[in-house]
Design goal:
Blueprint (H helix, E strand, L loop, with lengths): L1 E6 L6 H18 L3 E11 L2 E10 L4 E8 L2 H18 L1 H10 L6 E9 L18 E12 L1 H11 L3 E6 L5 E6 L5 E4 L4
Parallel strand pairs: 1-2, 6-7
Antiparallel strand pairs: 2-3, 3-4, 5-6, 7-8, 8-9
Helix pairs in contact: 1-2, 2-3
Length: 190
């Protein structure tokens, strides 16, 4: 598994990097088959250290967790515990989907844009144009999944929504977490 361990405006030593690799490897190997890469970012928020970890699995799923603590090692341990809980909770579902899927998930590239918020402008002034101002442009990956896999991916990642290509008809669909706690599914092909 490839690791990318970094700190935002803080120095992380070799001992912490080794601890992160060993601990995260033990957690991920225990509950998930064939992890591909992991990104761990440490930062400081006030008096607390923040640790954010994201693990990509060969099945196309992404698990992420975040922990805060007054010590950097404790922040990582909280993150690792959350990651282990997520992977343990979805172990059976991950294995079931892994057995059904013989090929890796097909991924389609799509452009992503970040638009300037309307709060950045004077609210009383009329905009000169209705075209939004593009702040950044990036590439994103849209996976080809079943609806069940998409819901599982959204829950594992802790994301409020997931855009995916439905395997049945190859059209773009969206699953999202509703305010009432249920999951919504938008399928324009129906």
């Amino acid at each position: 598994m490839r690791y990318q361990i970094s700190g935002k405006q803080i120095d992380i030593g070799d001992a912490l990097q080794t601890h992160v690799k060993d601990s995260l490897n033990a957690v991920v190997e225990k509950y998930a088959e064939r992890p591909t890469d992991a990104t761990v970012i440490f930062s400081k928020s006030g008096a607390e250290f923040v640790c954010e970890a994201t693990v990509h699995l060969s099945t196309g799923l992404t698990a992420s967790a975040k922990g805060l603590a007054h010590e950097i090692y404790a922040a990582f341990e909280k993150t690792a515990d959350k990651m282990e809980k997520q992977l343990r909770r979805y172990k059976r579902r991950l294995k079931d989907h892994h057995r059904e899927r013989t090929q890796p998930i097909d991924v389609m590239q799509a452009p992503t844009y970040i638009l300037a918020s309307s709060e950045a402008h004077d609210e009383d002034a009329e905009p000169e144009t209705l075209q939004p101002i593009i702040v950044a442009e990036m590439e994103t990956k849209i996976p080809s999944l079943s609806v069940g896999e998409a819901v599982m991916q959204m829950e594992i990642a802790g994301a409020p929504l997931l855009v995916f290509r439905n395997e049945k008809h190859d059209k773009v669909n969206v699953v999202y977490r509703r305010d009432d706690g249920n999951v919504g599914w938008i399928d324009p092909s129906l």
